[in-house]
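#lab-general

N.A. 3:47 PM
ok so I finally got the sequence cleaned up, no stray characters, all 174 residues accounted for. can someone with queue access submit it? mine expired

B.Y. 3:52 PM
send it over

N.A. 3:53 PM
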Amino acid sequence: RNRIEAESSEIWSKVREELEFKVDTTSKTKDPDEALAAQISEWETSANWYELGKTWIELEQYDKASESMNKALDAAGDDTLQMAKALLLKGRILSNEEEWQQALTNFNKAYDLTDEKEEALLAELSFRIANIFATHNRPDTAIAWYEEVTSTESEIDQTILAKSHRNIGLLYAE
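B.Y. 4:20 PM
back already:
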């Protein structure tokens, strides 16, 4: 019980840090509920929901992360980059839950929304799509997606790059 209370306290501390949300005491309204509601509506941007979702993923709170990603998607509006990032995280959550088809759908939607200038995001999406195909014994398709990652010329996550090279080798070895 003490461990659960300590973990719960740690989780909420991490969430509060991520939110950096403080009640605005300089609000022009005298109604504290109205002031808080105004602050919350200013905070509820796609980027903030996305960051909160990342925090929930780190804390392995996937239901809360999924809820945050849904809110990020709702708040994204016409911002295709924010939408793509939220779909990526939603796909990661679904992959973790082994909901492969839904994860692949989210990754593909995110890939289609992502501008070619966002090479790091495209590389991560390609990597995650390749992983699903590799998991489902589709080595040729997986290799093609991993090669998308390895052919990226800009700076990308080195872990993803290294794992892509490794996975290509493993798939060829089979």
